[in-house]
Amino acid sequence: MTQASSVSWARALAANFLGHSPAWYKRTIVAFLVVNPLLFAVSPHLAGWALVLEFIFALAMALRCYPLQPGGLLALEAVALGMTTPASVYQETVNAIDVVLLLVFMVAGIYFLKQLLLFVFTKVLVNVRSKLWLALLFSALAAALSAFLDALTVMAVVIAVAAGFYSVYHRVASGKHFHQVEHDAADDARVHEHHRDDLLQFRAFLRSLVMHAAIGTALGGVTTLVGEPQNLLIATRAGWDFLEFFVRMAPVSMPVLAAGFVTCAALEKLRWFGYGAVLPLSVRAVLEEFERVETEKRTPGDRAVLAVQAAVAVFLVVALGFHWAAVGLVGLAVIVLATAFGGVTDEHRLGRAFQEALPFTALLVVFFAVVAVIHDQHLFAPVVDWVLTLPLERQPPTFYVANAVLSAISDNVFVATVYINEVAAALAAGDISRAQFDALAVAINTGTNIPSVATPNGQAAFLFLLTSALAPLIGLSYLRMVVMAVPYTLTMSLTGLVAIIYWL
User: Fold this and answer.
1) Under 8 Å between Cβ of 333 and 319
2) Could you tell me if 206 and 474 are in contact, meaning their C-beta atoms sit under 8 angstroms apart?
3) Half-sphere exposure of 496 (CA within 13 A, CB side)
4) End-to-end CA, the chain
């Protein structure tokens, strides 16, 4: 191999490393990988803390690079250095098998209910004329569905509805028929002058609506053990079933739910933080005509599929409520029923249902590798021990705040996993009573779910929305999402903290 070809090969390798991530990001990850062995030689404990901070950095920079690759490299290095062992990583994964099954099967199961969800959200959007009631309905629907279904799927449906209607009107504004297939909704060059103002207002309308729905997924997601992956992990550690989890969380989750809905109504009335835009009449006329045509085109087979999906949705709610089986197995049953009676028997169509969840499932196992390091190096034990020295009544709010801060900048599943493991270890050691463990488990669950709406980093549904094709169409940037989330973050987080203080 010549020197020139060697240089070319090295450049190609450097370019391929972490793909299209910025050069500074690549250099930072390489620096982490170089520094960690040196730190480990000095102190394994110090290297462990460095790994945790580096991993949180990778989570916080999720828009630069999906955390699976940089986080996975850090985890592999940690195992290679001896910070933890493959057996410990495997054991952490086995301990959370319910969560893994939830992500693999439940998310895929809900994929086969998408037609029903699209039908419901579309009907609400077209038929409810009051923006205030529409915002409340979208938030309430997202909350109710996220309490029983996967929040990512609920958000995917909202995105599909919003993107579909945006594309329909954009075609008309560009002088085309709304059923014309070939059209670039991101190209405003052909939009007629007299449609431009309405298009801008329609963007603001959709922007506020999808943000209300995104917040709704967090409002509902905190209430039940299937609302978010970490909920099931906490419920498993605590030994709570579906109903007990709901009852345990209710003193905090119900006041927060009310605060969220009040905030939603107030924002629409006051038109603060980018909310309050209404649907222009010209846009409504186009959307109503489009929906009428789509309804007329619906065949008996399409209606049968909707009926099947509605029946399967009822089965899902009942099965979860009465705890007929592990959550992941209920999800598998949903897949079988929805596909068998919905006519989906092709392997490729089945495979698409698993695409949304598997990247995050892989990332979750990387979480567990880092958690194994934390456990083997006893990194968080001093922090938890200090909190447990506080008066009993101060411990839950302290855990709530600690989880809130970390969940706002990194992934809430990772944060909850770390803290619930430490608290469970304290219970097993006899350092805390069962009653105190239950109170701390509620504080950890609500602390990771509620304040994490502050940024797209904390909630997977928020990150999914930000990285979707819809976000640039309606002008939803990272900064705008943070600004629009500010009032919700304040009212919901403070309500949760007050409830923790007075009820636990």
Assistant:
1) yes
2) yes
3) 35
4) 69
Q: What's the one-letter identity of residue 232?
A: L
* CA atoms of 72 and 352, how far apart (whole Å): 24
At residue 150, φ and ψ (nearest 5 deg) are -80, 130
pLDDT band for position 181 (cuts 50, 70, 90): low
Q: pLDDT by residue (tens digit) across 249-264?
A: 999 999 999 999 999 9
CA dist list (Å): 429 to 138, 160, 372, 376, 385: 45, 49, 18, 16, 12
CB 492 within 8 A of CB 260: yes
What ranges in 1-85 are assigned the alpha helix state H?
Answer: 3-16, 23-42, 44-60, 68-81
Tally Cβ neighbours within 10 Å of residue 64: 17
Nearest to 155 by CA among 480, 488, 463: 463
Give pLDDT tens digits for 449-490.
Answer: 999 899 887 777 887 788 777 888 888 888 899 999 999 999
pLDDT tens for 296-317 read: 888 899 899 999 999 998 998 8
Q: How far apart are CA 38 and CA 480, in angstroms?
A: 40
Exposure letters 405-440 (e unless 16+ CB within 10 A, then b): ebbbbbbbbbbbbbbbbbbbebbeeeebeeebbbbb
Enter the tokens of residue 451: 């304040």
Cβ–Cβ under 8 Å, residues 124 and 141: yes
| Nearby residues of 452 by Cβ (< 8 Å), 6 or more positions away | 218, 404, 407, 408, 412, 458, 459
